[in-house]
Each structure stands twice: as C-alpha cells, then as structure tokens.
Write a structure and sequence with these properties.
Insect_CytP450_Detox; 4 helices; two-stranded antiparallel sheet; extended; mainly alpha
Length: about 120
C-alpha cells in the first residue's frame, strides 16, 4: 500500500522527524537542523546503507557517498575523510567564494547587455 504524497507533505511540515515504511523499506525524513547537523557531522559513519537498490555499474560518476552502500561506501568514506578535512575545506572557501563572485558578476553583465551567454567564457 502506497502512502499518499499530500499526507507525507503535511506530516513533514509539522514534525521534526518522520519515520515511515515504503513497502518493506524503512525511511527517515529529518527537518530539524540540529539533528541533521548531528548526523552529517558526528554520526555520518553510522548511515552508510541509505540506498540499497543502487546499481553501481551504471556510471562511475554515480558512485558517490550518497548512493554507495556497505564496504564500497566505507572505502570511499576513508579516502574522502583525509581529502576534505576542516582545514582544507576552509582553505578552499576563499577560492570558491572568488570564483562564485566572478561568475555572478559575469552573468550580471551579460544579462544587462541582453547577450547570449557562452559557457566557455565563464571559465577563468
């Protein structure tokens, strides 16, 4: 029996945490920012089987932390943990902010002039 979508939307609008079954698969819907931060920062390693129906042979690009499960998820998590430490992310922030500001100003100028925007020109 499928759950009606309006019922889920109404429930998630008022509840911080919703736990439901879809067929025989348990699903957890979170809306509380404190709980979401706790899971994404502190307890991320406990939530590795989020999508058991994923087929890994589709494309290498699709093999990311959000879609892998089990031992494949653990291996990628170990690799990425060392690559994206807090210090490294903080160093990347200035570069990301600079690039995004350049892109916003370029797109703003192009939009003001009513020109067709060529994506190749957006690159630095």
């Amino acid at each position: 029996m499928d759950i009606e979508l309006p019922w889920i939307i109404t429930l998630t609008a008022v509840a911080a945490v919703v736990f439901l079954y879809r067929d025989s698969t348990p699903n957890l819907i979170l809306r509380d920012p404190v709980i979401i931060k706790q899971i994404l920062v502190k307890d991320f390693d406990h939530f590795f089987d989020r999508n058991p129906s994923f087929v890994e042979n589709i494309t290498p690009v699709a093999c990311n932390l959000a879609s892998l499960t089990g031992s494949h998820w653990r291996k990628l998590r170990v690799k990425l943990t060392h690559s994206f430490t807090f210090g490294k992310m903080r160093l990347m922030l200035l570069t990301i902010l600079g690039c995004s500001q350049d892109l916003v100003s370029f797109l703003g100028e192009s939009a003001d002039d009513n020109h067709i925007i060529e994506i190749k020109k957006c690159r630095r």
